[in-house]
Backbone:
């Protein structure tokens, strides 16, 4: 399954404007990740610092908060990692909270509601 991008919004959980971003759908990532500078600009403050194992096997620590996400006009609150500049990843936890999955029957990957996929 190839990678692809989807237009989403991210914002402060207590309201305000949503910042539009083009996020890479990464079903191999547990949580979504946005640049720390963007999350700080939106007024998010870390709730905790967690350890993660990255693709090359290294263990790293990142700050984590809850953010408001908008996908396809729906809004939900999801965990988000304060990541490096340029990292706009939409992870599995966010997809599950939105009840979305990558449609495995399509040649061109796309997000669909889970109930629309023939399993």
Residues:
């Amino acid at each position: 399954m190839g990678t692809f991008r989807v237009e989403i919004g991210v914002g402060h959980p207590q309201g305000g404007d949503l910042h539009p971003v083009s996020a890479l759908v990464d079903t191999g990532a547990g949580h979504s990740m946005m640049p720390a500078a963007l999350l700080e600009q939106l007024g998010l403050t870390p709730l905790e610092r967690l350890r993660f194992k990255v693709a090359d096997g290294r263990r790293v620590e990142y700050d984590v908060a809850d953010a408001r996400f908008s996908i396809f006009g729906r809004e939900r609150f999801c965990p988000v990692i304060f990541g490096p500049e340029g990292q706009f990843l939409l992870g599995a936890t966010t997809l599950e909270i939105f009840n979305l999955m990558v449609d495995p029957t399509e040649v061109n990957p796309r997000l669909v509601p889970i109930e629309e996929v023939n399993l």
About this structure: Residues 100 and 118 are 13 Å apart (CA to CA). The chain has a mean pLDDT of 92.
